[in-house]
């Protein structure tokens, strides 16, 4: 796979698939610019070589064509400030203005295309749509690891129309760090899996059972495990149809000698909101009408002890409903423990995108762990052993 590092963009018009799917508030202001910051080195390399950059991305999930809420025009001013050049904007990613602006683009200039998903052909992986995009540049750079698991026109199909295709720095770093975790992990290796559903994490949990020394389970999926052990979970989120699977995973962990660590207590609430009444109860003893929304203080201590002794740490998924400050205590404590293990004990820590990345970044810890992935779903699928279309297209 060719990378940005060993490619000279002088005189080239680089068509760069970035992941600018950033959250915007009601005033269309960016509330988390992590994904934009991640692409800066790739774009700066193209410009400093004497090339120009044509940026393409999706934003949100527009259902019926162009929508004000999902227009990438809201990113033009912030991007212009980031790169110190006036970013040009094409109001239609494959329209006449895109063709004209791309044709007249000079070295050192940046053009941003309108949201790719305003065309349904993008997500369908339509070859004709990919070809129309491809005509805008003469080298394809894929730096959108977060969408590499999708066989969309801009993330995979476009590779057919370029002889020169390059992995950006984000793509390269994501793959290298995932490989480091999977193939070169120093022991003890601890994986922390959170989130609401076992069904979302079955394959990654099963693969990790062959890799890790410790597997910490937190978040909503713990209540399905509680059911599997005959515990009471009140009205906590759970997957009753996955109870047998939970039992199987418990047995597999035992058979493989993996230390499977569950919460020993939970903070539960009588309603799903930040100001609900709350109490801490032992695992499997959540009263009727109450629901578990966070791990309890004893669980925090237990998890922190395991993390402190670890040399490799993979974390994917929060420990509770971290969007509510009163139920973010467990997630924040785990973030703190991972940072300490990284800084004080030299552990390698990979934060697996999505909510865990948000939790770490919101706590101001993003630059104090080894690596924060920009792609939740893509990282999980890569670690499950699946072929990612966006990666395969760069290797073809």
From TrEMBL:
Record's subcellular location: Cytoplasm
Catalytic function, reaction form: (2R)-3-phosphoglycerate + ATP = (2R)-3-phospho-glyceroyl phosphate + ADP
Main location: cytoplasm
GO molecular function, one term: phosphoglycerate kinase activity
Pathway(s) the chain acts in: Carbohydrate degradation; glycolysis; pyruvate from D-glyceraldehyde 3-phosphate: step 2/5
The keyword ATP-binding appears for this protein: yes
Residues that bind substrate: 19-21, 35, 58-61, 117, 150
EC number of the protein: 2.7.2.3
Record keyword Transmembrane helix present: no
Keywords from the UniProt entry: ATP-binding, Cytoplasm, Glycolysis, Kinase, Nucleotide-binding, Transferase
Positions of ATP binding: 201, 292, 323, 353-356
InterPro entries: Phosphoglycerate_kinase, Phosphoglycerate_kinase_N, Phosphoglycerate_kinase_sf
Pfam family, one: PGK
Coiled coil residues, start to end: none
EC class (word): transferase
Subunit structure: Monomer.
Similarity comment text for this entry: Belongs to the phosphoglycerate kinase family.
Name of the protein: Phosphoglycerate kinase
Organism taxonomic ancestry: Bacteria, Pseudomonadati, Bacteroidota, Cytophagia, Cytophagales
């Amino acid at each position: 796979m060719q990378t940005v590092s060993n490619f000279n963009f002088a005189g080239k018009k680089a068509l760069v698939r970035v992941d600018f799917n950033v959250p915007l508030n009601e005033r269309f202001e960016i509330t988390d610019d992590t994904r934009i910051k991640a692409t800066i080195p790739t774009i700066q390399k193209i410009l400093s070589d004497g090339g120009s950059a044509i940026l393409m991305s999706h934003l949100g999930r527009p259902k019926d064509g162009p929508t004000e809420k999902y227009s990438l025009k809201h990113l033009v001013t912030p991007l212009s400030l980031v790169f110190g050049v006036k970013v040009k904007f094409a109001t239609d990613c494959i329209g006449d203005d895109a063709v004209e602006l791309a044709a007249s683009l000079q070295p050192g200039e940046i053009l941003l295309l309108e949201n790719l998903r305003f065309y349904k052909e993008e997500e369908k992986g339509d070859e004709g749509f990919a070809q129309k995009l491809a005509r805008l540049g003469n080298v394809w750079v894929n730096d959108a690891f977060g969408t590499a698991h999708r066989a969309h026109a801009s993330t995979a199909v476009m590779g057919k129309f370029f002889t020169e295709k390059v992995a950006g720095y984000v793509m390269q770093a994501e793959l290298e760090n995932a490989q480091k975790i999977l193939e070169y992990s120093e022991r003890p290796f601890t994986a922390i899996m959170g989130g609401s559903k076992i069904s979302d994490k079955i394959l990654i949990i099963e693969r990790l059972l062959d890799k890790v020394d410790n597997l910490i389970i937190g978040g909503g999926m713990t209540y399905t495990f509680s059911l599997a052990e005959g515990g009471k979970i009140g009205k906590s989120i759970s997957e009753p149809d996955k109870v047998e699977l939970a039992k199987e995973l418990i047995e597999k962990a035992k058979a493989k000698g993996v230390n499977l660590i569950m919460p020993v207590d939970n903070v539960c609430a009588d309603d799903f909101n930040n100001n609900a009444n709350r109490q801490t109860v032992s695992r499997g003893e959540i009263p009727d009408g109450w629901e578990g929304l966070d791990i309890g203080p004893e669980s925090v201590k237990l998890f922190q002890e395991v993390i402190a002794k670890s040399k490799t740490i993979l974390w994917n998924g929060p420990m509770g409903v971290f969007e509510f400050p009163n139920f973010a205590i467990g997630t924040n404590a785990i973030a703190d423990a991972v940072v300490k293990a990284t800084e004080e004990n030299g552990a390698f820590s990979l934060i697996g995108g999505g909510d865990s990345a948000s939790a770490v970044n919101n706590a101001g810890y993003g630059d104090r762990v080894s690596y924060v992935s920009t792609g939740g779903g893509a990282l999980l699928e890569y670690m499950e052993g699946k072929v990612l279309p966006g990666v395969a297209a760069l290797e073809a």
